[in-house]
Amino acid sequence: MAVLVVAEITDGALSMDATAKAVTAARPLGDVTVLCIGSLARAAAGEAATISGVARVLCAENALYGHRLAEPVAALIVSLAGEYAHIVAPATTDAKNILPRVAALLDVMVLTDVTAVVDADTFVRPVYAGNAMQTVRSKDEKKVITFRTSTFEAAGTGDPVTIDDVAAADAPGLSEWLEDRVAESDRPELTSAKIVVSGGRGVGSEENFAIIEALADKLGAAVGASRAAVDSGFAPNDWQVGQTGKVVAPDLYVACGISGAIQHLAGMKDSKIIVAINKDEEAPIFQVADYGLVADLFQAVPELTEKL
Amino acid sequence: MKVLVPVKRVIDYNVKVRVKADGSGVDLANVKMSMNPFDEIAVEEAIRLKEAGKASDVIVVSIGVKQAQETLRTALAMGADRAILVVAADDVHTDIEPLAVAKILAAIVKEEDPGLVICGKQAIDNDLNATGQMLAALTGFAQATNANTLAVEDGAAVVAREVDGGLQTIKVTLPAIVTTDLRLNEPRYASLPNIMKAKKKPLDEKTAADYGVDVSPRLDIVSTAEPAARTAGIKVESVDELVSKLKDAGVV
Ligand SMILES: Cc1cc2nc3c(=O)[nH]c(=O)nc-3n(C[C@H](O)[C@H](O)[C@H](O)COP(=O)(O)OP(=O)(O)OC[C@H]3O[C@@H](n4cnc5c(N)ncnc54)[C@H](O)[C@@H]3O)c2cc1C
Ligand SMILES: Nc1ncnc2c1ncn2[C@@H]1O[C@H](COP(=O)(O)O)[C@@H](O)[C@H]1O
């Protein structure tokens, strides 16, 4: 059977990492077609065509699909759904916006944040903030799935496959894009970074976050935050790691001034090595930390930055 | 304009979840249950729209076991005007899937004709993040998920959405489905007098069959297991020791 992988594309640029991970997850399910959607999608399609294991690429380049509004994009995917038993994507905010809409239009359930494929009908996904892993078997004829990227390796690249254009579908015209507020950064992207340095409420202010960022820059790391740090305005929303934020599994995760609430752990406990710096030796973060340092972060973090 | 807010009764976010030894699910008997936190935010937002004169009635709906009545009373105590309980299960361990929930909600939307439906972005039990988008599909309405801010004006809603790259602002034609993110507002606590008053507010009881919706699951739960456990490591005494451990581990 065939699988349709919806590529992650932002303003014309392919997210190679997220898309290649979804391809890895999709491979056992059948022949992989990658669908590239955007007002600019051709360059992304060209790149997607080099991902190993991809049989074919479809390119839907049309002004309708700028900013990937849910209504037109879902309508397009549904128009192409016929020949695919599985319609899948990496579990980004973009795909989580669109795929449940696709599923309901097809009258099937959606499986979000899947971490393992058992067989063509059976999948594993975390529930209750990752406190339980549920294995579910779908009775639906078509399966609509988002894959949690932190648990799959990215597929490699090779010779490009063919790219076919697909026509735009009807667009309901119910929504309109107004603005993006995106911070430009030279740092690696949070969900694909090898090292993540995160700050929590203990960091105390937006200005103080500079010491977290200095350590991150020394390590070539991405910066993350707890919900408390985001809610308090110390850090932007897209830095939130956790059950309802981003899920990361880097080689090294450094948690500074983070207590280790279950909702935060849900987003980082699969990291290879966890370091916790916290002045409270009872903080639950120490229960998952490989290396715990009971210390004031205002001393320990700059010292660490200096000594690395 | 009516505002419809679906609220789900879920395990309280502070409770440590226990997987049952036989792998049949998690233990929900005798644990504290609460309103899904994202739904508290949704109720708060709806009440604020009413207070600002942009909404007339706030109607809350819950689908599940009879005990969801308590969740609805909480929403009424916060300031919602009336409630609809759709009984669709008798065992507290039965979770009604988003597709079935969305179908029931779509039927209620048809009856009530709200200008806006505000859902939570995600139920913290199944962590699916699907119902709002599915309801939008079934009603054919626009959707604005992960709302960080919401402004209603002239038949449209302007919503700043929390997305992976930051914030995206879109304008959706009403009626529309909005789902809440954590930063939309800080929900109020119900005062004692309001809790008393809420007991007298109307609460209609329905069943899934009243809406002609089949709630049987599409996904069979094969098993529920504990996640791989992480063992605690060691405490280091100094930054120097930490640096040498990280170097030994080869991560820096
Ligand atoms: C529906 C819902 C969803 C949620 N989703 C998420 C999510 O996705 N991600 C998330 O992170 N949280 C989430 N939360 C919130 C979570 O429950 C916690 O409230 C949050 O993670 C706490 O953040 P924190 O550890 O930074 O703050 P706190 O728990 O307040 O901890 C601060 C820590 O800093 C330490 N500290 C203070 N000063 C210093 C210092 N000078 N040096 C060293 N240490 C210091 C303290 O000892 C303390 O341990 C969610 C909650 C709910 C209800
Ligand atoms: N059984 C239910 N009853 C009422 N509302 C629900 C129910 N299930 C889901 N919802 C709504 O849909 C949102 C998202 O839930 P979910 O798609 O299950 O993650 C919740 O925050 C609620 O607003």
Query: Tally of extended strands of chain B?
Result: 13
**Second CATH tier, the architecture of the largest domain in chain A:** 3-Layer(aba) Sandwich
CATH topology of the largest domain in chain A: Rossmann fold
Along the chain, the helix and strand elements of chain B come as: EEEHEHEHEHEEEEHEEEH
Top CATH class of chain B: Alpha Beta
Detail the poorly predicted runs of chain B. Answer: none
Give helix and strand order of chain A, one letter per element, not per position: EEEHEHEHEHEEEEEEEEHEHEHEEH
Strand order of the largest sheet of chain B: 9-8-7-10-6-1-4-5-11
Total strands of chain A: 18
> What is the CATH-assigned architecture of chain B?
3-Layer(aba) Sandwich
Largest sheet of chain A: 7 strands, parallel
Q: Report the C-alpha radius of gyration of chain A, rounded.
A: 20 Å
Query: What's the overall geometry of chain B?
Result: globular
Strand order of the largest sheet of chain A: 7-11-6-1-4-5-12
Mean pLDDT of chain B: 97
Bound small molecules, by name, code or SMILES, are:
flavin-adenine dinucleotide, adenosine monophosphate
Query: What is the CATH superfamily classification of chain B?
Result: HUPs
